[in-house]
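User: Sequence recovery, please. Input:
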């Protein structure tokens, strides 16, 4: 991945103050169908799987991009959940929670309720 970063120096207006290319090492989350959820914790992502959890130093967006073809949704600003891992949903649209495998409970932001409904999660969970 290559990131374009603007160099900001207030006292140096030389030709070197333009954009700088910064290379970051590729990060992967090789979890496949074992992934349950991704949870943001400060500057780390807790990766919940069927075999346990671990922390990775990356943003939630980076972690979601590396998950691969697993169906899931970002249910909250700090959570991404794999659809297959949802056991049941409780609460109201103002206070909804997803109960996942491994006794993990993920919050659902009020704005994400419509996404869950559009994706068919609210109808299909009872059929599991």
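Assistant: Recovered sequence (128 residues):
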């Amino acid at each position: 991945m290559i990131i374009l970063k603007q160099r900001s120096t207030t006292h140096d207006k030389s030709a070197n103050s333009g954009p700088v290319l910064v290379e970051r090492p590729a990060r992967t989350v090789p979890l496949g169908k074992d992934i349950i959820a991704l949870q943001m914790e400060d500057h780390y992502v807790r990766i919940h799987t069927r075999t346990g959890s671990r922390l990775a130093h990356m943003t939630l967006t980076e972690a979601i991009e590396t998950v691969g073809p697993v169906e899931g949704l970002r249910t909250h600003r700090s959570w991404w959940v794999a659809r297959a891992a949802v056991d049941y949903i409780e609460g109201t649209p103002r206070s909804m929670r997803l109960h996942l495998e491994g006794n993990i409970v993920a919050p659902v932001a009020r704005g994400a309720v419509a996404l869950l409904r559009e994706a068919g999660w609210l109808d299909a969970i009872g059929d599991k």
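The chain has three helices and ten strands.
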